[in-house]
Backbone:
C-alpha cells in the first residue's frame, strides 16, 4: 500500500527525519534544508529530484516560520522585494547548472562533493564557536541596531541607482542584486534556503541591523523556496509525497525545538550540532564513495551516520529540555525558526 | 512522484507551490491548536514525572 507515492516505511522515515530537521530549525534557527538534499541523495534520489523537493520543503518551512514571526519579527519587505529579481535569476542559473551536470551524468557527484565541503565548513564553524564560547565568556553583547564597519564602508560607495531602505539608510541596487543573485545561485544549485549565507550577507554587505537582517533573510528564504519550487516544478522533478511527509514532521519538530529554547541554553548543545554537521559531511562522502567504488556497505555507513547523528542531537535537545522543565529552570526565550 | 496529468508544466509547477503553501498553513494552524490544547498539560506531566 502506498500513500502519495511512498511506502509506509518511507513515510515513517521522512516524517521522523522531518521531525528532527524541524527540531534543529526551531532550536538553532537553521539546519532545515541543508540536511534534506544530502539525505535524499543518500537514499538514491536523482540530484534534480533531491534539490527540487528540498526547495519545496524550504518553501513550506519558510511559510511556517514567517507565520510564526509575523508579530515579533522585523522584516524589511522593501529590501526583500528588491532582492527578488536577483534571487530569481540566481536560482534559475543554479538550477540550469544542475540540469547541465545531470546531462553529463555528474550532478550527484558534484552536488555531493559541494555538500561534503559545505557541511564540513559549517560544522567546523559551529564546533569552533562552541569551543570558543566555552573558554571565552566575556563576549560583549551585540547591539542589534548597530551595523558592522565593512557594511558602513560598502554603504559609503554610492554606486547609482541608490535605494532608500525601510530604516532610512541607502544601499546600492547593485549590492542588493549581487547579494540576492549570489544566494540564489547557491539555493538553486544545492536546494537550500541559503539563510546561512543570506543573513550574514544582508548584515555585512547591505548593512541592515541584525534583528531586521534575520527577519528579512527569512522573507528571502520564502521567496527562494517559492521561486525554486516553481523552477524545479516546471521540470516535474518535485516529489510531493516526500515534501508532505517531511513537512508533517518538521512543523511539529519546529514547535518543540522552538519551545525548547525557553528551557535549554543553546551553548550547551551547539557543539553537538557542529559535530552532527561534520558527521553529515562524512555521511555524504561515504555515499559518494559507495557510488564510485560500488561498495554497498558505504551506503549503509552513510545512512547510519546521517540518521544516527540527527537522532543523537535531537535526543540531546529533548533530554536537556525535559531535564530543565523538571528542574523548573527557564532561560530567556529566543525567537527561533528564524531562518533556513 | 505524483502525476498531475496533462496540464502545462507552468500550471503544474504553480499547483505544487500552492499545494505546499496550503499544506504549510494547515500544519501551522493544526499544530498550533494541538499545542494550545495539550501543551500545558504535557509540561505539567513532565514536571510531575
Residues:
Amino acid at each position: 500500500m502506498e500513500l502519495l507515492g511512498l511506502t509506509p516505511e518511507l513515510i515513517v522515515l521522512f516524517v521522523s527525519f522531518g521531525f528532527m530537521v524541524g527540531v534543529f530549525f526551531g532550536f538553532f534557527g537553521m539546519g532545515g534544508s541543508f540536511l534534506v538534499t544530502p539525505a535524499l541523495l543518500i537514499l538514491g534520489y536523482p540530484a534534480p529530484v533531491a534539490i527540487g523537493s528540498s526547495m519545496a520543503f524550504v518553501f513550506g518551512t519558510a511559510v511556517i516560520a514567517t507565520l510564526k514571526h509575523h508579530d515579533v519579527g522585523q522584516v524589511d519587505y522593501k529590501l526583500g522585494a528588491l532582492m527578488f529579481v536577483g534571487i530569481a535569476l540566481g536560482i534559475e542559473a543554479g538550477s540550469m547548472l544542475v540540469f547541465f551536470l545531470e546531462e553529463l551524468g555528474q550532478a550527484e557527484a558534484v552536488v555531493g562533493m559541494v555538500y561534503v565541503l559545505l557541511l564540513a565548513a559549517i560544522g567546523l564553524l559551529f564546533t569552533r564557536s562552541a569551543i570558543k564560547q566555552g573558554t571565552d565568556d566575556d563576549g560583549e553583547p551585540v547591539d542589534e541596531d548597530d551595523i558592522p564597519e565593512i557594511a558602513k564602508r560598502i554603504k559609503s560607495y554610492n554606486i547609482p541607482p541608490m535605494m532608500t531602505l525601510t530604516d532610512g539608510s541607502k544601499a546600492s541596487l547593485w549590492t542588493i542584486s549581487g547579494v540576492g543573485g549570489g544566494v540564489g545561485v547557491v539555493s538553486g544549485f544545492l536546494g537550500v534556503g541559503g539563510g546561512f549565507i543570506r543573513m550574514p550577507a544582508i548584515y555585512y554587505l547591505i548593512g541592515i541591523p541584525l534583528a531586521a537582517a534575520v527577519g528579512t533573510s527569512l522573507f528571502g528564504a520564502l521567496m527562494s523556496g517559492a521561486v525554486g519550487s516553481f523552477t524545479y516544478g516546471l521540470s516535474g522533478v518535485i516529489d510531493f509525497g516526500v515534501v508532505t511527509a517531511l513537512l508533517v514532521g518538521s512543523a511539529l519538530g519546529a514547535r518543540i525545538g522552538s519551545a525548547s529554547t525557553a528551557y535549554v541554553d543553546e551553548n550547551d548543545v551547539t557543539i553537538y550540532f557542529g559535530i552532527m554537521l561534520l558527521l553529515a559531511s562524512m555521511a555524504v562522502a561515504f555515499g559518494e564513495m559507495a557510488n564510485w567504488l560500488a561498495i554497498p556497505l558505504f551506503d549503509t555507513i552513510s545512512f547510519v551516520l546521517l540518521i544516527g547523528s540527527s537522532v543523537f542531537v535531537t535526543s540531546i535537545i529533548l533530554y536537556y529540555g525535559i531535564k530543565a522543565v523538571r528542574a523548573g529552570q527557564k532561560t530567556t526565550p529566543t525567537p527561533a525558526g528564524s531562518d533556513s | 512522484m505524483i502525476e498531475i496529468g496533462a496540464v502545462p508544466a507552468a500550471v503544474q509547477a504553480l499547483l505544487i507551490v500552492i499545494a505546499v503553501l496550503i499544506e504549510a498553513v494547515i500544519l501551522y494552524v493544526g499544530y498550533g491548536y494541538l499545542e494550545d490544547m495539550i501543551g500545558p498539560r504535557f509540561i505539567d506531566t513532565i514536571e510531575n514525572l
